[in-house]
Amino acid sequence: MSISDVQGYGETSSLLHETPQAKQKTPLPKLQISILMLLIRELDITGGNDAAVGYYAGIIESLFFITESLTVLKWSRLSDRIGRKPVLMIGLFGVGVSMLCFGLSTSFWTLVISRCICGMLNGNSGVMKSVMGELTDSTNMAQGFALIPITWCFGGFFGFLMGGTLARPQGRWPNLFAGQSWAKYPYFLPCAISASVVFVSFMFVFLLEETLTTKRKHNIPSDTTGTQLLEESRSNESPSENMANVPLRLLFIPSIIIPLANQTLLAFLDICIFALMPLFYSTPNYLGGLGFAPPAIGSWMALFGVIDGLFQALFFAKVVDRLGPKRTFYIGISCFVPIMTMFPVMSWLIFSRGNDYMVRIALVCQLVLIVMWDMSLASIFMFITASAPAKNVLGAVNGMGQMTSSIAHAVGPMFAASIFAFSKDHNILGGHAVFVVLCIPAVGILWLASYLPEELQNRDEDE
């Protein structure tokens, strides 16, 4: 069976369909989208874990992404067969349990095991993008996918705030947390609260309608006979099962591989930015860094999260409507080299003028560039959703994208931090070699983006 044969089934018709006339923009399904955003945010609230592990956080999070990369495709493909809701519920349950285990950990290896469990059970990242693709159509897809980076920004902000505020509660509120268990498990409180919110989200999934077409409940007319129902069931099941079990090799086609390659390189560069920012902020002035204390770093990162979230919410869909997704993607990725350039510029300002207002102006300019860079994230999600040749392989396509992104997220921080330290230790290019090295893949993604389609075709919802 070939991919072209698969596309011929009526029940699993193509996601993409050209229409000659412009369609009126469809309103977003607000309740369903709200529940989906809550689920996405709860996965990012695990940023509170960082307070519990200090400098080991990089190792633990890399292991999380490695284990996620080994299983996320399996979960995504499973969601193509049994539906999105069951996989989302399994993933949320796994996140909640792993959070509780994390808070009860008393050794490094128990921390590692708890995060690896979370990575293995967390198939939600790819599945939620599939749900968003199925809840939206060609007229409101930009609005829907703009919400995903927003939840990441605000989820990271609240996760950082929760981890920093609620960790070691016995030291902050000794009268309220006087028991010995709080001394033995100083990070259980933020983990327990995060897990509680995750379990609340688990309950909200029951309100989420199943978005996979072949698993939706259809209204059955009262005059339908048992024979008619059986014949209809047989006619619908066979194509769906075949489509959900399409071999992955049939999905290795240019229209899918090119967006996935762009997303992988984008994920690598994105995680490198956010690995370098706290390193550069905390590096002493005499080494060319900003020498910020942890509270100052947190304040700048929180400011960025709020500004970025508001910008994506208010302007991303309008930018896509005016410029199109490909030009929007180009604008975003074109900001990477200027972002890297701002690091040595701030170092030069530190050495020449001291830590004065000009450094703050340069820092604000860099944060603005990063906000523009983040437009590329939602843009590439749109391309990947549109690349799925049929509805029952949308989970598989998003799973492939999440798998490669997880690998990039595992490798990126270690790569960026190692090159940063090496360039500083050996004073290569004045300690700024890492920024030059990272500009090489940035040029590569500009070339790779040229192979993306000029426009996304309109997608018709199932009738």
3D structure, described in words:
By secondary structure, this protein is mainly alpha-helical. About 70% of the residues lie in helices and about 0% in strands. It has 20 helices and no strands. The chain has helices spanning about 5, 30-45, 50-55, 55-80, 85-105, 110-120, 125-135, 140-165, 170, 180-185, 190-205, 225-245, 255-280, 295-325, 325-335, 335-355, 355-375, 375-385, 395-425, 435-450. Helix 2 (about 30-45) runs antiparallel to helix 11 (about 190-205). The model is unreliable at about 1-20, about 30-35, about 40-55 and about 220-240 (pLDDT under 50).
Features:
mainly alpha, 463 residues
Number of strands: 0
Rg of Cα set: 23 Å
Shape: globular
Q: Structural class of the helices, strands and pairings?
A: mainly alpha
Distance between the termini: 26 Å
Order of helices and strands: HHHHHHHHHHHHHHHHHHHH
Low-confidence stretches: 1-22, 28-36, 38-56, 219-241
| Helix proportion | over 70%
What is the number of helical segments per DSSP (H or I, 4+ residues)? 20
Average residue-wise pLDDT: 76
Oligomer: single chain
What's the quick description here?
Helix content is 71%, strand content 0%.
Q: Topology, pairings included?
A:
Elements lengths: L2 H4 L23 H15 L5 H4 L3 H26 L1 H20 L4 H14 L2 H12 L5 H26 L2 H4 L7 H5 L3 H17 L21 H19 L9 H29 L11 H30 L1 H9 L2 H18 L3 H17 L1 H13 L6 H32 L7 H17 L14
Helix pairs in contact: 2-7, 2-8, 2-11, 4-5, 4-6, 4-7, 4-19, 5-6, 5-7, 5-11, 7-19, 8-11, 8-14, 8-18, 13-18, 13-19, 13-20, 14-15, 14-17, 15-17, 15-18, 15-20, 16-17, 16-20, 19-20
